[in-house]
């Protein structure tokens, strides 16, 4: 079958047009992913796509990540492939801008499915990744200063409740081998408490990939996505529906049980059909269109 891939740049408030760098960034991420898939697997594609977004500094991941209540960068990521339900997540990463590559290394070289905190630095060195102190981007530092200034209080517990914004980037794909894969990366929520781990590091919540069903990747309020096991739920829906219907089913469920304005999801089924749904104002997404022979994007 032909490789199929879709990416998202996060669900939340605020639409942006074709002239916005994020719009072009999603297109380029799809192109990076499809190029990698033509040479390798669906897993290669999703890691390449997310890795591009981490490096771009345009999204809430990698070099563009949001900040904790203390003004620090803490990253979460995960990868999963459908054969044998292989996958791993990493959380509170402070040593590399590419936690998605770290998650892949953990998946392929250990029996663990979740590694968090300072120990990630040891794994990153073993993985051959460049380790460094993560510095907030200029844009993130500026936004952080505004948030602190606008807040009527400085208590961290109250700040995290006041500022609930934060996006995620993610990708799902099916390679020419027919094996679905998913990858996700994020800086988490703005003003989150140090040590907080969201859905992106959790298999079944932030991502899921099943060789008999398909793959899904969620974005939005991590706590609510975890409670609903949203990505696993979307994949289970693909036992009876195509990718688009499965995405809508998952968002309908979280909207009914946890309210609206909290999630988005992208999906791909075993026939390479892609889907997307969200209950927020917008969700940037892009995918490879075989008919047009190029990547297309929507907000």
Short recap of the structure:
This protein is of the alpha+beta class and 299 residues long.
Structure description:
By secondary structure, the chain is an alpha+beta fold. It has one domain: (Glycosyl)asparaginase (Glutamine Phosphoribosylpyrophosphate, subunit 1, domain 1), CATH 3.60.20.30. The chain contains nine helices and twelve strands. It has helices at residues 21-39, 42-56, 99-109, 119-126, 138-150, 156-162, 222-228, 230-237, 243-258; strands at residues 4-12, 75-81, 86-93, 114-116, 169-174, 180-186, 207-210, 214-220, 263-269, 274-278, 282-289, 294-298. It has an eight-stranded mixed β-sheet, with helices on one face. Helix 1 (21-39) runs antiparallel to helix 2 and helix 8 crosses helix 9 (243-258). It is globular and about 50 Å long. The two termini are 28 Å apart.
List keywords for this structure.
299 residues, alpha+beta, Glutamine Phosphoribosylpyrophosphate, subunit 1, domain 1, 8-stranded mixed β-sheet, 4-stranded antiparallel β-sheet, 9 helices, 12 strands
Largest sheet, spatial ordering of strands:
4-3-2-6-5-1-11-12
CATH homology-level superfamily:
(Glycosyl)asparaginase
> What percent of residues are in strands?
25-35%
Average pLDDT taken over every residue = 93
Count of helices?
A: 9
CATH class identity: Alpha Beta
Structural class: alpha+beta
What is the CATH fold-level name?
A: Glutamine Phosphoribosylpyrophosphate, subunit 1, domain 1
Using the 3D structure, state the CATH architecture. 4-Layer Sandwich
Overall structural domain count = 1
The biggest sheet amounts to: 8 strands, mixed
Low-confidence stretches: none
Order of helices and strands: EHHEEHEHHHEEEEHHHEEEE
Distance between the termini: 28 Å
Helix content: 25-40%
Radius of gyration: 17 Å
Count of β-strands: 12
Shape: globular
